[in-house]
Amino acid sequence: MAEKVEVDITIPNHTRYLSLIGRIGEDLVHSLGHYNGDREELAYHLNLVLTEAITNAICHANESDPNKQIQIQISTSDENLIIKVFDEGDGFDFANFKTTDMQDTDECGRGIHIINRLMDNVSYHRINKRNVLEMTKKLH
Amino acid sequence: MQLKTEEIGDIVLIQIEEERMDAHNSGTFKEQMLALFDEGKCKLIIDLSPVRFVDSSGLGALVSGFKNASAREGSLKLCGLQPQVRSMFELTRLHRVFEIFASAEEAQESF
Closest Cα partner for B82 from A44, A117, A124, A137? Predict the structure, then answer.
């Protein structure tokens, strides 16, 4: 039978929790039973993608509002690792955010570029008054 | 952000004392660099040796420092990058922007 892991965490809308969630992501990769690739690299990338997605949700989608929350779901199957980050903001036009227009010395905008480079499938859509950034990484 | 500064002539060596540079501490780091620029110090070496993790906010803070130093006819150079931190500069092509050295001594000699 396929080994499945599911993590579901809700955090206050504050950047002090970034390190905690990043560590959980790294630990989850180290505990995967069936990954044959570079585990250290995948752990680092998961930490990074979680950090970027949650920062985006806290600072941009939820506009640093302390009354809002972020929900993070991480699940794995034999084939995929799926991360969902839910925000309570108005959403933004993710599909048309062009990272190719970035200049080398721009200070912002690299987060989405990093997510798109490191994950195999990325989407952002609205579900029941919230938005979810859904990111999938193939494990084979 | 936890850091130590050491002045070597007109160069300021900033040793980061954190394992992680992210959106939680990079805003403070930008302000700490701005305070140095306000004092007229614009030749900076940032030693990233203890840093294991840097995200786009941490990179953005370094870019901000780089631009401020360049605008004052100084420069901001980096040293001591761990392999995964270096890979972040390559992923975002920032290795083409910064001068990156193995050690603080090498960075110092390049001024």
Answer: A44
Q: Label each residue of A83-117 as H, E or C.
A: EEEEECCCCCCCCCCCHHHCCCCCCCCHHHHHHHH
- Give residue-wise pLDDT tens across range A19-47: 999 999 999 999 988 788 999 999 999 99
Q: Can you give the CATH number for the domain in which A118 is found?
A: 3.30.565.10
Compute the distance between CA of residue B95 and CA of residue B99 in angstroms, rounded to an integer: 7
Contact B100, B81 (CB under 8 A): yes
Q: What is residue A33's predicted lDDT score, i.e. its pLDDT?
A: 81
Q: Where are the domains of chain B?
A: 3-109
Interchain proximity A108–B22, CB inside 8 Å:
no
Question: Phi/psi class of residue B12: alpha, beta or left (left: φ > 0; alpha: ψ in -120 to 50)?
Answer: beta
* Rg (alpha carbons) of chain A, rounded to whole number: 15
Element (H, E) at B40: none
For A109, the closest chain B residue by CA position comes to B56
- Asked if pLDDT for residue B20 goes beyond 90, the answer is yes
Q: Decide if B56 and A52 are in contact by the 8 Å CB cutoff.
A: yes
The CATH homologous superfamily for domain B3-109 is STAS domain (3.30.750.24)
Q: Which of B24, B59, B84 sits opposite A110 (nearest CB)?
A: B59
Residue contact A107–B23, C-beta within 8 A: no
